[in-house]
Amino acid sequence: MQLDLVPLWAAIIALGVFMYVLLDGFDLGVGILFPFAPDDASRDLMMASVAPIWDGNQTWLVLGGVALLAAFPLAFAIIMPAVYLPILFMLIGLIFRGVAFEFRHLSPRRQRWDRSFFIGSLVATFAQGLVLGTYVQGIPVAGRHFAGGSFEWMTPFSLLTGIGLIAGYGLLGACWLVMKTEGPLQIWARNKAKLFLFGVAAFIAMVSIWTPLLQPQIAQRWFAWPNLLLLSPVPVITLALFAWLLRSLVRDRDVAPFIAALGLFLMCYIGLGISIWPMVVPYTITLWAAASAPKSQAFMLIGTLFLLPIIVTYTGWSYWVFRGKVKAGSGYH
Amino acid sequence: MSFDAVFLSRLQFFWVVALHILLPAFTVGLASYIAVLEGLHFITRRPVYLRLSQFWLKVFAVSFGMGVVSGIVMPFQFGTNWSRFSDAAADIIGPLMAYEGLTAFFLEAGFLGVLLFGRARVPPWVHFAAAILVAAGTLFSTFWILAVNSWMQTPVGHSIIEGRFFPADWWAVIFNPSFPYRLVHTVTAFYITTALVVAGTAAYHLRAGRFREEGVTMLKQAFGLLTILVPLQVLIGDLHGLNTREHQPAKIAAMEANWQTQSRMPLLLFAWPDERAEENRFEIGIPVLGSIILTHERDGIVQGLKDWRPEFRPPVAIPFFAFRLMVGVGIVVFLLVVLSWWQWRRGRLGDTRWFLRLCELASPLGFVAVLAGWVTTEVGRQPWVVYGLLRTGEAVTPSLTAGDVLVSLAVYVVAYIAIFGAGGYFLVRLFRAGPVPKVVHEPAGTPARPLSAAAEAD
């Protein structure tokens, strides 16, 4: 009798993807806010606040992707072709974003790489939103293959989630800067956070109404009795977090807005999970149907259970090393 | 050959890997070199080691960043362009790639920030430890990704059910027959590549009469390492070749453009393989030497390409010329190392201008050899993606259209030319600026823009 590792692997991958969304979310958000900063000195500070950690943040994307390949290969083999072009946009965006950290210090034309940082972050974020939308609206499957066309991802719903994610990452980035900066830059970031918060609220509302209309089974899951009652904490806590975030911004708190923004992302993520469970390719292939061999999942699990706590520890330590408000001239250049 | 989704996807994979591999080829060795410099400084407290480490860290930050962002592309290619390969082989290769992420990428990323930005924030021994851990991360990464590649070259330790590969014995999967040879051969090549760049940079400044202490130190370190590794690489390469002949004889036949199974095979110095006529034109060879190299016997028998039906043969010309390019570079580097012994004995390692000029010219040779070797082994694996078991043409994503791939290939070509062009230009400027002292910051508290060393040197 083999222990069923599928739920555990689903949880590990869900955690990996969520860590990616939170962590790269805030540094992509910093990129989205970048060109609107008050001055060049502010931009240097914004960059310096994420420079030591962005690489680690982005590593969660690799983990999420590769763990999906390893634990649910069929899902990987169907989802990736379905979002062929959005994945391309995302990767190219991440490339232009990532090289800008170093290139802007080396180039005589700094503005060019500042623009590369901004556009790269914006494109990567939008593309991730497209992937999310395509995923939620459901992926056509025939046998073991993706059965749609090259532009399956280009729908009003996925465009909405694309723009929504820009607002979301923008909010995370602004709240990160509220936490990591001081003075005029912090005030600026706080104002931007308020702006993005209302955008995020609007998009959460639209997506929450639209998603059940996409799939009757999602509507069924949320609105059938007694689910309606059991799941009611999800929207209630989301609303409470929204109120807390707004209040902490108005009251000039440093850390609370970032925590509350993370909370908002968590609630959206939980909501998504409730909608699609137990599918891994919505709405045809379950986690169990897509799972790799128990021997593959077990082999990976031994190392993961041992290594993941160590990774979280030293990653946390590296955040601790760079704790506090970011100061000018903290780079090594 | 038609421009279908398969061919274009292969072209795209070639393009994104070929440019990506240039960075690990350099940063794996550079991370170890920086760890050594940090260690030397930690123990001896000599300022020259700190200056060198700070200089190479700047280079490392640029090249490692490029390596990270271009590396993310690869695993996604497996899903977007090679979904049938992913579906068939993920149970085997997926866990190995996951271990690469868990043991290598997080380690590199977690300690890179401290290594680059944390010198003033952590005790010296922690900073030194961070350098070691980043270097270890690059080597772990090499280990796992070459385990994947080697399994695709010499697959064992699996069972096949309905066209999908399932693990039977993980030890056998990881330590498959070609893996130990490929790992040692590749890591040695990476270290040699870095040493040649270090030597070339030192030579450039010594010739210009700058950074005397740094230059001589780098030159001695580089040629000290090359003295050990280059002769060793000849030996390892030979063993790797014997291993390939045993497990992938068709690849060896293509590398040698050997059509007929024969004993006393000549070593071809030049030939123009004609695949349609199944023969070579313009052959120039040394009798019997091919058999001696490949079998270590004068009468050793080497299989010819005609033993395989045409649809089971790899392309011939590409592995044939790429292999000769790699070996040719190896011979040139070997001669350079011999010259360095002579210069070192005379005590003029940092003074002989023509030798320094040669070192400068040789600095990109490692990259040439790595690319040529990679092309040899990957094209030589064709027509298989998993050798002997899954054909490349059957591994591609079914829903993919040629138009899709044409778009993505065009985007990758344009983007990589821009990024690698700019990155290469910045790196050359950093090399030419040399180990200039660390930038002076304004007193703490006042806003100071970090200046770049490269911009300052102009």
Structure description:
By secondary structure, chain A is an all-alpha fold. Chain A has one domain (8-320): Formate dehydrogenase/DMSO reductase fold, CATH 1.20.1630. Chain A has helices at residues 6-33, 40-50, 54-71, 73-82, 84-106, 110-137, 156-180, 183-214, 216-223, 227-230, 233-250, 256-276, 287-290, 294-321; strands spanning 141-142, 145-146, 279-281, 285-286. In chain A, strands 1-2 form a two-stranded antiparallel sheet. A two-stranded antiparallel ribbon of chain A has the order 3-4. In chain A, helix 6 (110-137) packs across helix 7 (156-180) and helix 8 crosses helix 9. Chain A starts with 5 loop residues before the first helix and ends in a 12-residue tail after the last helix. Chain B is mainly alpha-helical and 458 residues long. Chain B has a domain at 15-166 and 416-458. Chain B has helices at 5-44, 47-71, 73-80, 83-117, 124-153, 170-174, 179-207, 212-247, 249-255, 289-295, 317-345, 353-362, 365-381, 402-433, 453-457, and strands at 158-161, 164-167, 262-263, 267-274, 279-286, 301-302, 384-386, 390-391. In chain B, helix 2 (47-71) runs antiparallel to helix 14, helix 8 (212-247) runs antiparallel to helix 11 and helix 11 (317-345) packs antiparallel against helix 13 (365-381).
